[in-house]
UniProtKB/TrEMBL annotation:
Pfam families: VTC. One of its GO terms (biological process) is polyphosphate biosynthetic process. This is VTC domain-containing protein. It comes from Microbulbifer rhizosphaerae. Residues 4-223 form the VTC domain. CDD domains: PolyPPase_VTC_like (cd07750). InterPro entries: VTC_domain (IPR018966), VTC_sf (IPR042267).
């Protein structure tokens, strides 16, 4: 497995986001899923083992770690569901994803993991094995608005992930009833920069002008702060 895609993350304030978004829009094309600067909504349900191995990999600062999530796109007419395995080694990322039927995704959320085997898909087969052997369960919902830009050179993708929230009442990613709570300080947003071999110099200059440091930001870990991690936390 080759880890060749770089992923850098930064916090920006709202003023920086507005400036950066307009600067980036002059250099990169808007992603095909974005009709305008309103972007699109992403909703992810993260799964983890009975002992929260994915969470603790991140909290312990492990060089190698992974996450598994079920992702939907709220506010669209299409009912799209996608499973992803995201592995990281430092700032290098390797991601596998697979689409699946909406009703199958609902059944998997409720614990019918055998639905993953219907597709004869290597990614879904691996997720099934992981879920069964490591006793994976739904852990937290993460929701945000994304505005994305792309460039073919080095497969650059720049995303602004805005208004990051978690649902504090339930884990049903398919429910329209939600009680969302912000998981970062008011006025803070997340900038993600992804690229393959290199980041073009003119983009590096734009990013450096915001005088912000790279951060080890994990949406999953941020959201888990608002949910009990282990049973002993009830005491």
């Amino acid at each position: 497995m080759e880890f060749k895609r770089n992923e850098l993350k930064y916090y920006l304030n709202n003023v920086q986001v507005d400036t950066a978004m307009h600067q980036v829009s002059k250099l990169l094309k808007m992603d095909k899923h974005c009709l305008d600067f309103a972007g699109y909504h992403v909703r992810s349900l993260y799964f983890d083992s009975y002992d929260d191995e994915c969470l603790f990999q991140k909290q312990s600062g492990n060089f190698a770690r992974q996450k598994i999530r079920l992702r939907t796109y709220a506010g669209t007419d299409q009912k799209i569901a996608k499973f992803e395995i995201k592995r990281k080694k430092g700032q290098l990322v390797h991601k596998h994803s697979a689409m699946l039927d909406w009703e199958d995704a609902k059944a998997i959320y409720k614990g019918d993991y055998k639905r993953l085997l219907r597709y004869d898909n290597p990614t879904l087969n691996e997720i099934y094995t992981t879920f069964v052997t490591r006793v994976y369960k739904p852990k937290v919902i993460v929701e945000y608005k994304r505005v994305a830009f792309v460039m073919p050179v080095s497969n650059v993708r720049i995303t602004f992930d805005l208004d990051l929230k978690t649902d504090i009442n339930h884990l049903d990613i398919f429910s329209n009833t939600r009680n969302l709570m912000p998981v970062v300080l008011e006025g803070k947003q997340i900038l993600e920069v992804k690229f393959d071999q290199f980041l073009p110099g003119h983009l590096r200059q734009v990013l450096s002008s915001y005088q912000t440091e790279r951060m080890a930001i994990s949406k999953y870990t941020l959201a888990r702060r608002y949910h009990k991690v282990q049973k002993w936390e009830d005491n």
